[in-house]
Design brief:
single chain
């Protein structure tokens, strides 16, 4: 490279700056704008999540006070304002649980199907599916419950899916198939977070072995455990 004097280097730098200053300033401004926009978006998301959580707590508290109409109103407002929020799904799950307690199984099924069909949270969808399957069995629709649950796609809920499928088959009177599902549930329940009671599973399996004629009568629908709050998306 040709040696340049100080004056020549200074002149070269001035020419470069003259040719490129607009691009440099524009790039800096754009970077600051992107950073500012990202920070605004982050604040907006946090504020929205906090508002959603407050609405969800209002639903749960209203149900705790036996104020069903108020709970439904709060849940509807949250769903209208933030339809994709996991807290809107959690609110519907809470309403469905209350409906089961009142033995309003058709209403519970409607709410659970809504979450199972539209939730963007895979875990909430699975929770809704398992609870819906329990309700369908109680409604005398074991075939619909069986069609709803696929243990191969249930992930951490595989043991629970097998368990509920066993209940549905038992209600149908298919003891051998029910036993296989209970065995699969026991095999899949490898930890405390599997969502099933191993001792109760063994009792149901053994009861089928002892009675090959009459199906085991299942208790009222029992909901799978779900997190109290879901992370905002």
């Amino acid at each position: 490279m040709e040696d340049l004097t100080d004056n020549e280097r200074e002149e070269q730098l001035r020419r470069w700056w003259s040719d490129n200053w607009a691009w440099i300033i524009g790039g800096v401004a754009l970077g600051l704008a992107v950073l500012g926009g990202w920070q605004y978006w982050q604040r907006h998301q946090q504020q929205s999540a906090e508002a959603d959580a407050t609405s969800y707590r209002a639903v749960v508290e209203a149900l705790g006070r036996n104020q069903r109409d108020e709970a439904v109103k709060q849940a509807a407002e949250l769903r209208e304002r933030r339809p994709a929020s996991p807290y809107a799904d959690q609110s519907d799950l809470a309403l469905a649980r209350a409906a089961v307690e009142r033995n309003e199984l058709d209403e519970a099924a409607r709410l659970l199907k809504g979450v199972a069909d539209r939730s963007k949270d895979p875990e909430l969808r699975l929770v809704a599916q398992t609870r819906l399957a329990r309700v369908l069995i109680a409604l005398g629709k074991p075939d619909e419950a069986l069609a709803l649950l696929d243990p191969a796609k249930a992930g951490a809920f595989a043991a629970l899916a097998h368990d509920i499928r066993g209940d549905a088959l038992s209600v149908k009177g298919d003891a051998p198939a029910a036993q296989k599902e209970y065995e699969a549930a026991l095999a899949a329940s490898t930890g405390p977070d599997s969502g099933v009671d191993r001792e109760y599973l063994e009792q149901k399996r053994d009861a089928l072995s002892a009675s090959a004629v009459a199906p085991v009568v299942q208790p009222a629908p029992v909901e799978a455990a779900a997190p109290t709050e879901a992370p905002a998306k």
